[in-house]
Amino acid sequence: MQLYTRDQHLSAAGHAILADVVLRALSGEKATPEVIAGTPVRWTGESDPDRLDFRRASLARHLSDGWLAWQKSGGKGTGGWRLGRRGLLAFRAGEGTIVVRGTAAAPLTLNLTWVGGGGGRTAAIARPGPFAIRVEQRRGGVRSAGGQRALLIDAGNAIGQVMIQQIGSLRTSPR
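Now predict its structure.
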């Protein structure tokens, strides 16, 4: 259950829990909220690498909404996060070009957009199989104090057809 939205506000579930606590308090009951794990994401240098490899670990703390399921690599480098219609992720993007690697089940188009400006790109994937998309970052895009950026990956109606395996700065992304 997600208690927070991508902008760190309460989600519908978070509002429902808060409403229950307030109603009980107003009725004179002692308000003891249900304890649920979850907080807005806070990164440190150790928990926020500039290259994410989803084949080896889920790294779910870097993801927001829009991701269907994580699959561990079966030895052929096939693991990663299956994308719904669109998914949001955040990581320390470094400077310059980043690379998004994955596999597609069918020909499709991906729109990659930096949240808060700073560029993006549309990439046509011509055939099923592995792909690597380079995404430039323009100066002026919004970053957190720790240098994190948010990237929205939109597959349109190709729900579940894309597996994102790696993302990272060009200088640190393996081939």
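The chain has a mean pLDDT of 79.
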